[in-house]
Design brief:
single chain, alpha/beta, 18% strand, seven-stranded mixed sheet
Length: 218
């Protein structure tokens, strides 16, 4: 029987150019079974790459994407492809079909009771709006373990002016200003992505009243 193949749209590859740089970061991840958090999945190119390489000996991913809330055929098709592709890796995964803020709050709530909460690799690749990117970064930062690799995509996006509210750079810069002293910058001045390594301890920062005990975690 022929081996099932990944379903990726050839014209929608916004990820593969990152692979050489990401491979250089893998030795910085100490966990033998890294937990990955991804905001913005599309068809899962980044997720598949991380599961098959960074998690070759163990690990898992939580992927958050809204998939148009499954209200469009395009959104449902992206979801179908993502789940198909993640299943092919044979690794544990969880897909949260939500916009990033409610999705991240769901993950944060679920992590409160986990014995070893948090993630070793966080990839923020959701909305391009500056305020959305700042909020994504803030909520995801509370889920990042000390020494986690924390990557913002599109820092040097060229579709909008980089000082625009419609460009992620302003949100990323605001995030970095707020968290001075809590990270080291690993990316160079001309790199497309902003790559950080967290140096502060993980802090979820809140408790939830009467929280449900049936939130699945990986």
């Amino acid at each position: 029987s022929t081996k099932p193949e990944y379903l990726f749209t050839r014209t929608q590859d916004w990820f593969s150019h990152n692979i050489p740089r990401w491979l250089e970061l893998f030795p910085l991840v100490a966990s033998p079974a890294p937990r990955i958090l991804e905001i913005g999945s599309w068809e899962g190119r980044a997720a598949v790459f991380l599961l098959t390489n960074l998690c070759a000996k163990g690990g898992s991913i939580v992927s958050i994407d809204h998939f148009d809330l499954m209200n469009t055929s395009a959104g449902r098709e992206r979801h179908r492809k993502l789940v198909h592709n993640l299943l092919l890796t044979g690794k544990p995964f969880r897909v949260i079909e939500a916009f990033s803020f409610p999705g991240l709050m769901e993950v944060l709530t679920g992590e409160i009771d986990v014995k070893q909460p948090g993630f070793d690799w966080v990839y923020v690749d959701g909305s391009h709006e500056a305020d959305d990117t700042l909020l994504d970064g803030e909520l995801a930062w509370r889920l990042a373990r000390k020494d986690a690799i924390f990557i913002f995509d599109d820092y040097r996006w060229n579709t909008q002016p980089d000082n625009s509210i419609h460009h992620p750079k302003r949100g990323i810069d605001a995030f970095m200003m707020l968290h001075v002293g809590e990270f080291e910058v690993l990316s160079g001045p001309s790199e497309y992505q902003m790559i950080l390594r967290k140096t502060s301890e993980m802090r979820i920062g809140f408790l939830v009243k009467d929280r449900a005990d049936n939130v699945p975690t990986l």
